Amino acid sequence: xxxxxxxxxxxxxxxxxxxxxxxxxxxxxxxxxxxxxxxxxxxxxxxxxxxxxxxxxxxxxxxxxxxxxxxxxxxxxxxxxxxxxxxxxxxxxxxxxxxxxxxxxxxxxxxxxxxxxxxxxxxxxxxxxxxxxxxxxxxxxxxxxxxxxxxxxxxxxxxxxxxxxxxxxxxxxxxxxxxxxxxxxxxxxxxxxxxxxxxxxxxxxxxxxxxxxxxxxxxxxxxxxxxxxxxxxxxxxxxxxxxxxxxxxxxxxxxxxxxxxxxxxxxxxxxxxxxxxxxxxxxxxxxxxxxxxxxxxxxxxxxxxxxxxxxxxxxxxxxxxxxxxxxxxxxxxxxxxxxxxxxxxxxxxxxxxxxxxxxxxxxxxxxxxxxxxxxxxxxxxxxxxxxxxxxxxxxxxxxxxxxxxxxxxxxxxxxxxxxxxxxxxxxxxxxxxxxxxxxxxxxxxxxxxx
Length: 450
Prior knowledge:
globular; single chain; disordered N terminus; 20 helices; alpha/beta; 8-stranded parallel sheet
């Protein structure tokens, strides 16, 4: 009897323990649910809030009138490139990062259709003499055709010695363009040859050939201080260039020039703000005529009293140039100038001892990244500015490209320079990324002005 009672008590205690364990498990599940549900709801709310804050607003279309009003609201005076075009550290873009951005399909197709030799040749702007080997080129014949088929150069630049009269020069430019198109344009109309001159009121070969009065030069426009007069002068120049089927004017000169400067006639005076205003008007006028412009000569070498033959040392520091000489370049960049020409000025304070601007990574990087220039950086004529250097012209071109130059201008010694650059590309001394970035910049401009 007693044993039976003990068994019943043990069974009772066991059942009670089981029941208590079940209740404990149920309580735990309830507690977990009470904690998890609010966390889940809070997380959903947080994700929704983040998505809402990061949503890109829709951009409505802007009419031409609206665009003009926005342009008119821009200040005429620029305090400095740093102030007007400053870029935060997070927004800075390196040369390597630029090539990772999506590239327009037409541009990508044009570049991908090119051989390595053609890509290398496309980095050059050359005179017709150095491409064909003649002393003075005045017609486009078999020699021009053979040279074009061998070298798919990016641009050809004509000088006054190439202009005998209006009909002759028009025929020369026409035939050169047709030969290039026949060789390369089939299947992609972006692969056209850029044909360039310098016509700015001081250099007036085409005006003279056409029997037209040349527009006012930079010095006269600076004396007037009238931005509308500058706009009209370069609008007339652009119209003239269109008659000759010229694509690029190597103007405006953005150097600040005193009466002793070697560019005093071409430049818009010595006042940084006035020069910035007039240079911007020149770029706008040429663009309105569908003519590419080229601001020269970065970082500003108007202090020189003689045209440079080799590197020249500036009396000013890099910071000094930012505050004054670079203002006209900044204003041209705001107006979308397609090309900026970089010279051989050496500047103290740029952390690259004795490095002229065209091979100074810091100075070209400042132009692209800090000033926001998205066009083509082209060197001044290497045949001139590399004179006296401790390296030859081919090495000068290699250094310029690796410093960030996108195009090399040579009026002499093209073949040797081309071969040196081609070897550097083949050997990897110029990376595919650097080559690609330079060509993308060039072809963006070609597509814009096509």
